[in-house]
Design a protein that fits this description.
9 helices; transmembrane; NADP
């Protein structure tokens, strides 16, 4: 069916309005949501970004539900959260296991209640030349970094849709916007996280549930111990704390995509204006990248 002149004009007016709104929001950011008393579930909470996300949400008055496969690390984070004064519940969960995720999610619903904010943070990084990667490690990368999002979202999204309220925040990477040599497995898994979040957002919109928000976070290299040999000529390696603070700030302001550092948003849009052969030149000039590594740690 052809679009009428009226429909076309209406579309153009909406586009113009959204452009103006975007410019306005660059100057006057939206107010932050209040998360006091909200139940926030964070996967991979025992280490790195997950730990700092937990502490920042605790400072904001949220109630924490911490998942990690490592009990000792998870309890260490929980102890820090308690010292801040927040309520915390801990669960040991292997997010690659659908049965384990389902069983643990059932426990959360029984013992704590429905989750208001789900943060898919658990991640793993192996790295190394693509021809040297072990098949089992490639599969593990996608099981932890990508497929686990399906299992957690399928558990906690239904109650959000029913209430038309909630947030799903997925931690991706700058490698989700520009693939990185010697991180082919990791980059691919994070590209998938970005696409997963984008498609999920559209599906939620089609379901008519505007109160359910999705946010994807794309940080530059973060000093969590996962990435052993990151390189950058001009941009400093991020700390887990500054990554967590920026991620939560963007999420609380309703941003669909959060880049850390914030300047990356402009860099990506500027790069999109250049011929595709320019991007490798810019990356080489900035010396963005990583040297091969062969060991692995979970986030």
């Amino acid at each position: 069916m052809k679009a009428s002149i009226g429909e076309t004009l209406s579309l153009l007016l909406k586009i113009i309005y959204l452009y103006l709104e975007s410019f306005y929001r660059l100057i006057v950011p939206p107010a932050r949501q209040d998360v006091r008393g909200k139940k926030v579930l964070i996967t991979g909470a025992g280490h790195g970004i997950g730990r700092e996300l937990s502490l920042e949400f605790a400072r904001l008055g949220a109630s924490l539900i911490l998942w990690d496969i490592n009990k000792e690390n998870n309890e260490d984070t929980a102890d820090e959260v308690r010292r801040i004064g927040a309520t915390v519940h801990t669960y040991i969960c292997d997010v690659t296991s659908t049965d384990n995720v389902h069983t643990t999610a059932d426990r959360v619903r029984r013992e704590v209640g429905n989750v208001d904010i789900l943060v898919n943070n658990a991640g793993i990084l192996y790295g190394g030349p693509v021809l040297d990667m072990q098949e089992k490690l490639i599969r593990r990368t996608f099981e932890v970094n990508t497929l686990a999002h399906f299992w957690t979202v399928r558990e906690f999204l239904p109650s959000m849709l029913e209430a038309n309220q909630g947030v799903i925040m997925n931690i991706a990477s700058s490698s989700a916007k520009s693939g990185t040599a010697f991180l082919v497995d990791y980059s691919s898994s994070k590209y998938a996280v970005f696409g997963f979040t984008e498609a999920l957002r559209e599906e939620i919109d089609r379901l008519g549930k505007p109160g359910v928000q999705t946010t994807v976070v794309c940080p530059f290299f973060v000093d969590t111990g996962l990435c052993k040999y990151p390189k950058s000529r001009f941009d400093p390696i991020l700390t887990p704390k500054e990554t967590a603070v920026t991620a939560i700030d963007g999420m609380l302001r309703g941003e669909k995509e959060v880049y850390v550092p914030r300047s990356m948003w402009l860099q990506l849009r500027t790069a999109a204006l250049f011929p595709e052969k320019v991007l490798p030149l810019l990356k080489n000039f900035h010396q963005y990248g990583i040297d091969p590594q062969y060991n692995a740690k979970s986030d």
